[in-house]
From TrEMBL:
Main subcellular location: membrane
Listed name of the protein: MFS transporter
Entry keyword set: Cell membrane, Membrane, Transmembrane, Transmembrane helix, Transport
Entry's transmembrane regions: 77-97, 109-130, 142-159, 165-185, 206-223, 229-251, 363-381, 387-408, 429-448, 454-473
GO CC annotations on file: plasma membrane
Natural source organism: Novosphingobium endophyticum
PROSITE patterns assigned: MFS, SUGAR_TRANSPORT_1
A Pfam family: MFS_1
InterPro entries named in the record: MFS, MFS_dom, MFS_trans_sf, MFS_Transporters, Sugar_transporter_CS
All copies of domain Major facilitator superfamily (MFS) profile, residue ranges: 72-478
Membrane topology: Multi-pass membrane protein
Length: 488
């Protein structure tokens, strides 16, 4: 059977005559047997497309671990750093441009938060789709698509005649972030061991949010010298082009590692593992995984709601904090440093907090992180000056550093590899929907109260309540501290 070549080959095909998933051999362009034999009814993780040289990877020869896959792990860290650049360039300069460049009237909180609402809703939807798509077509292709979507963003900001163009650019940013950030995390979890999940997610989020913080500071200075529009055009275009080049040339698809883990789990000797949800199909549909993550499993539901609420803090730092600081006569570079303090502490602490949870478990870092973060948000209103605001932002960043990688690691602990990509995607759906819900809540709270300060109290209280729900309904998920019973 002859098929036309495509830039990314090895598209999956369903051999209905034999009930198997097959893929196209790039040398012969013939339909070959599946990498791991599965029937059509088992059309889930194994149906993935193979990209570049993935067809040559035999599952039995693939090794899991950071050191064993250090080159590819490093490439994925660079990718998420660039994803952070794409997000960070929108967080310092763009909110400050609302009034000066686009005439958004001071006090128009709902209009000001509209672009973050759009970002959150779109990114949440793309997270949901990205996990499932990556199990069908591979991680690398989804990553590539995400960067292609980002290409128009710098040009749209540069040309934008109205605030609606910024909202449209933010929609594209949401698609980019949902596809690319999800894939960098999933790819790292594919190639590392279960006892490295906290460290893996911690390194991923450190790199990403270091990029966010660095981009926020750099673009603040660039905007002062080149102007906000031209500065964002140059910075944004450079980040996207470099990311696309690295994706095409050096990133490998990691789905075969997930396939190998799934195959090994089925043939492994009885032993302890994570407490996976019960009553779930061996190859669940998207709807079934969504139900498990959202309400059927109380632990995963508690984690998902915590993920949603913690994004209220990020929405506040993105859209309200810069406006608050500018109203206090802070300059753009000073705004960049305060927002950057939050991002640097958040990102830097994850170098340690992810590894910490591998040693002591996920539960307490997540719960205490929610409460510490809420306290940091409230602190902003309790003092004045650049030093105090930076300290308050750092406390909030420390709380985020404790909770952020470990909520994701907790999801990975108690979801099996066959549908872990979908589970992470749905968790990220709920988490990033928090951008939209949080930004809307911020806008309504500030508008009804008539003052921007009420938004800070809204977020702080939400974090304390959500942390309490997490404490009450969740449990320790690390297999070493709370394992499932040995399976016969």
């Amino acid at each position: 059977m002859s098929v036309p070549r495509r830039p990314f080959r090895h598209w999956p095909r369903l051999d209905r005559a034999h009930g198997h998933i097959a893929y196209i051999d790039p040398q012969t362009e013939q339909i070959n047997p599946p990498l791991i034999g599965q029937t059509a009814e088992a059309f889930s993780i194994v149906e993935a497309a193979k990209i570049t040289d993935v067809h040559s990877m035999e599952p039995s020869k693939l090794k899991h671990g950071i050191q064993e896959n250090v080159t590819q792990f490093a490439h994925q860290l660079i990718q998420v750093l660039l994803v952070g650049f794409a997000l960070g360039m929108m967080r310092t300069v763009v909110p400050a441009m609302a009034e000066t460049e686009f005439g958004v009237r001071r006090g128009s909180f709902l209009l000001l938060t509209a672009f973050v609402v759009a970002f959150g809703v779109v990114k949440a939807a793309m997270n949901f789709l990205a996990g499932r798509m990556s199990e069908r077509v591979g991680r690398k292709r989804v990553l590539f698509w995400g960067w292609m979507v980002a290409l128009p963003i710098p040009f749209m900001i540069w040309y934008a005649p109205t605030w609606n163009w910024i909202i449209a650019a933010t929609v594209l940013l949401g698609i980019n972030q949902g596809l690319c950030w999800s894939m960098t995390q999933t790819a790292k979890l594919d190639i590392t061991r279960g006892d490295q999940r906290g460290l893996t997610v911690g390194l991923n989020e450190f790199s990403g949010y270091f990029g966010v913080a660095l981009a926020g500071i750099v673009t603040g200075y660039i905007a002062e010298t080149m102007g906000p529009r031209l500065g964002l055009l140059v910075f944004g275009l450079a980040a996207v082009v470099v990311a696309l080049a690295l994706t095409i040339l050096w990133v490998k698809d990691t789905l075969p590692w997930a396939q190998a883990e799934a195959a090994a789990r089925k043939t492994a000797a009885p032993g302890y593992s994570g407490r996976y949800p019960t009553g779930v199909s061996e190859h669940p549909s998207s709807g079934e995984v969504f139900a498990v993550m959202s309400w059927r499993d109380r632990r995963l539901a508690a984690i998902s709601q915590a993920g949603l609420v913690e994004k209220f803090v990020d929405a506040l730092v993105w859209v309200i904090l810069p406006v608050f600081l500018v109203s206090k006569a802070a300059t753009l570079p000073e705004v960049g440093w305060v927002v950057g303090a939050y991002g640097f502490v958040w990102g830097g602490s994850q170098l340690f907090t992810g590894r910490l949870s591998d040693q002591i478990g996920r539960f307490w870092p997540c719960v205490t992180g929610m409460w510490i973060c809420g306290a940091g948000v409230a602190m902003v209103l309790c003092g004045e000056g650049l030093l105090w605001w930076s300290l308050s932002a750092s406390v909030a960043g420390l709380g985020m550093g404790l909770l952020y990688p470990n909520l994701s690691a907790a999801v990975a602990d108690i979801t099996p590899p066959e549908w872990r990509g979908s589970a992470i995607g749905i968790y990220r759906f709920w988490r990033d929907l928090g951008y939209g819900i949080g930004a809307l809540g911020l806008g309504v709270t500030a508008s009804v109260s008539g003052g921007i300060e009420a938004a800070f109290w809204f977020v702080s209280l939400s974090m304390f309540l959500s942390g309490t729900l997490l404490y009450w309904f969740s449990e320790e998920t690390h297999p070493r501290f709370n394992p499932a019973l040995p399976q016969a």
